Amino acid sequence: MLGRLRRWARAIKRDVHALHLAARDPRTPWYAKGLALLIAAYALSPIDLIPDFIPVLGYLDDAILLPLAILLVIRLMPPGLFAEHREAAARATARPISRAGAAGIIGLWLLAAGALLWWFWPGVTW
Q1: How many domains would you assign to the chain?
Q2: Does residue 51 sit within a domain?
């Protein structure tokens, strides 16, 4: 059961990425683009419609509303278009993650944190 849940979560993640790709495609109708952008932004946002700390109802938006919203956007798109974007999203998730890029971003965050400490901490000499 845990394996099935993980596959379902990966499929939702892939579909959200596919929504983002579909929203940038000129073949997607304007109303489907707008809805796809809203759903992708909501799915990636840390703010939920129903907070997760509320028992049972907290995961309702993630488990039921999000997949239903994705299905709605799929029905608003021309046939086959979402399948194309779903394949592109699956290929993108199969690519290896850049460790050098992650190290660079971590370095930038550390540099920014050091600059803030230097700027706001009185009496610190580096």
Answers
A1: 1
A2: yes
Helix axes 2-23, 81-94, angle to 10 degrees: 120
| Model confidence, pTM | 0.65
CA distance linking residue 60 with residue 49, whole number of Å:
9
Phi-psi region of 123 (alpha: psi -120 to 50; beta: other; left: phi over 0): left
In a domain, 21, yes or no: yes
Q: Look-up: residue for tokens 């580096």?
A: 126
What domain range is 72 assigned to? 2-95
Q: Which residues contact 97 (CB under 8 A, 6 or more apart)?
A: none
In a domain, 115, yes or no: no
Residue whose token pair is 């059961």: 1
- State residue 96's pLDDT score: 67
Q: Which candidate, 35, 34, 41, 48, places its Cα nearest to that of 17?
A: 41
Per-residue pLDDT tens over the stretch 71-116 = 899 899 988 898 999 899 888 877 767 778 778 888 999 998 888 8
